[in-house]
Structure formats: structure tokens, C-alpha cells
């Protein structure tokens, strides 16, 4: 049975310590959450006691991954939207550094909405150049995307360019989503080794810090973002396990984002623990 961190996305509605208790109740040793409303801008108030309880749990578990809200678009064609992304990210990261140091923060690179990828990459780099120098202990992760619409970050080339161009990139990394990359045209199912070879060549496996593990409701290269429960999609459980057991990534934390309730997550966590090295 694997000892690597495995958990799922949890709600912060009942507080931070409550998420730790929920994770423990389903066998999780890490978890992901939204600090800021995923469709808005309001954040859950943190009490010192609540944060301290979670930090105690983190002494033998973790890391936790804070997911930026979906409303962030660092490469919007509207300056007000880009400023919103900057301010929310800066606030989230300040809270993570203060209350939950040495953990992870994940965000979607955004959509260029017709401006083109080149302009979008410059905007993302500009935002990160402003935000990252103030970060003291949180690793900030770009998420691999499926490529729907005008999404940026569906190719390893694009993510690698951002990493190369950001001035202060020591705390910058990548969160790889299994559904997203398969939908974007990276054949995790039939060529997992080649996929990681390409990631290493274009980005560097030392930059890979976390994994979103999801099956894909849609076929290979569909460029859709449709998560499925493990073993109920076009990837299949066995192929996901084969990929996750690659020695180069077999210690990375796993965060499930499958369409599940707590009982469903508990079952998937048990399945993964039994199958992973």
C-alpha cells in the first residue's frame, strides 16, 4: 500500500480544521480547497484557532493545495479583469504564507479571448513577476489545461515558456491534470513514458509538484474539460495507475477532482492506495 499523499477536493464552508477531519474520515492524507469563492471574490474568514488545528494535522499529513477561483483570468483583454486576478492571487498567497506555510497554490493560466497566445503569455508573465517576489513559502503552480476555447496552458511549450520568462521563478511549478492533458492531445493512455519525457524536455520534471487525478468523460484530444470518476472514463483505472506508478512521479501528491461525494472519494482513495507503489 502506497504512502504517497492522496486526497480530494473539499469544501471550506465549515472551516479549515473541518476539512482536515473530513480528509481523515475518508482516508485522505492531503486535500485541495478553494480559499476564495470559485465563482466570485469572497474569502472564508480564518480564525487563529481554526488555522492552528489544521497546521497540527499538517504536521503528519499534507501538503494542502489551495485552488485559485475560476473567475481569475490573468490574460484577459480587460485590464480590470487582469487586476482582479492579480489582487485575488496576491491576497490568497499572503494568507497561505501567513497561516499555512510550505504548501501549494494552483491556478488556471487563463483565456486569451482573441488576443492570441503570444500576448496572453506576456500578460501571465507580467502578473507573476509582480506577485511572486512577495511569496515567502508557497509553491505557485500553473495547471495544465484541456485547450477548450481560447485557453492558454494546454501545451507543455506554453507552460515552459512562462516558467522560462518569469524573473523570480524559484517558487513556480506545474500541477498536471490527467484529464486535461489527455483531452489536450497528450496520450497518457498509450504513451505515458513519452509524455513524461516530453514534459521533462520542455518544462523539467523538477517543476512538477502536484497531480490532479481524474478520468476523462470525453475521448482523446477532444479539447474538453469533462472529469469522470476513476475507471468510468476514456482513460480507465489501469492506465491511470500505470502512469502514476512511473518512478519519476511516484511520490507526488494526488488530488482527486472526480464528480464524487465523500463516500465516492473514500472508495477511490482506497483503490489508489491499494494499486500505487
TrEMBL record:
GO terms for molecular function: deoxyribonuclease IV (phage-T4-induced) activity; DNA binding; DNA-(apurinic or apyrimidinic site) endonuclease activity; phosphoric diester hydrolase activity; zinc ion binding. Zn(2+) 2 binds at residues 143, 177, 212, 257. Zn(2+) 1 binds at residues 67, 108, 143. Gene3D superfamilies: Divalent-metal-dependent TIM barrel enzymes. Residues 21-274 form the Xylose isomerase-like TIM barrel domain. Its cofactor is Zn(2+). Its EC number is 3.1.21.2. Keywords: DNA damage, DNA repair, Endonuclease, Hydrolase, Metal-binding, Nuclease, Zinc. Coiled coil: none annotated. SMART domains: AP2Ec (SM00518). It comes from the Bacteria. It catalyses: Endonucleolytic cleavage to 5'-phosphooligonucleotide end-products. PANTHER family: APURINIC-APYRIMIDINIC ENDONUCLEASE, ENDONUCLEASE IV ENDODEOXYRIBONUCLEASE IV. NCBIfam families: nfo. Belongs to the AP endonuclease 2 family. This is Probable endonuclease 4.
Amino acid at each position: 500500500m502506497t504512502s504517497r499523499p492522496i486526497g480530494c477536493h473539499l469544501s471550506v464552508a465549515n472551516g479549515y480544521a473541518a476539512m482536515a477531519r473530513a480528509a481523515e474520515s475518508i482516508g485522505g492524507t492531503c486535500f485541495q480547497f478553494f480559499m476564495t469563492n470559485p465563482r466570485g471574490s469572497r474569502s472564508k474568514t480564518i480564525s487563529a484557532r481554526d488555522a492552528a488545528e489544521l497546521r497540527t494535522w499538517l504536521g503528519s499529513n499534507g501538503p494542502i493545495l489551495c485552488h485559485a477561483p475560476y473567475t481569475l483570468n490573468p490574460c484577459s483583454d480587460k485590464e480590470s479583469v487582469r487586476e482582479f486576478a492579480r489582487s485575488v492571487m496576491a491576497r490568497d498567497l499572503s494568507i497561505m504564507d501567513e497561516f499555512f506555510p510550505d504548501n501549494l497554490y494552483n491556478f488556471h493560466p487563463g483565456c486569451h479571448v482573441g488576443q492570441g497566445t503570444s500576448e496572453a503569455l506576456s500578460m501571465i508573465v507580467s502578473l507573476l513577476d509582480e506577485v511572486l517576489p512577495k511569496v515567502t513559502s508557497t509553491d505557485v503552480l500553473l495547471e495544465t489545461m484541456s485547450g477548450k476555447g481560447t485557453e492558454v496552458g494546454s501545451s507543455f511549450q506554453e507552460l515552459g515558456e512562462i516558467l522560462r520568462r518569469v524573473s523570480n521563478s524559484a517558487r513556480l511549478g506545474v500541477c498536471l491534470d490527467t484529464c486535461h492533458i489527455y483531452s489536450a492531445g497528450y496520450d497518457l493512455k498509450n504513451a505515458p513514458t513519452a509524455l513524461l519525457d516530453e514534459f521533462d524536455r520542455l518544462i523539467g520534471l523538477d517543476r512538477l509538484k502536484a497531480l490532479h487525478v481524474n478520468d476523462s468523460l470525453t475521448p482523446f484530444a477532444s479539447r474538453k474539460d469533462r472529469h469522470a470518476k476513476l475507471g468510468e472514463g476514456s482513460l480507465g483505472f489501469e492506465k491511470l495507475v500505470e502512469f502514476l506508478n512511473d518512478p519519476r512521479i511516484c511520490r507526488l501528491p494526488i488530488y482527486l477532482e472526480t464528480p464524487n461525494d465523500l463516500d465516492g472519494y473514500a472508495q477511490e482513495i482506497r483503490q489508489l492506495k491499494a494499486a500505487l507503489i
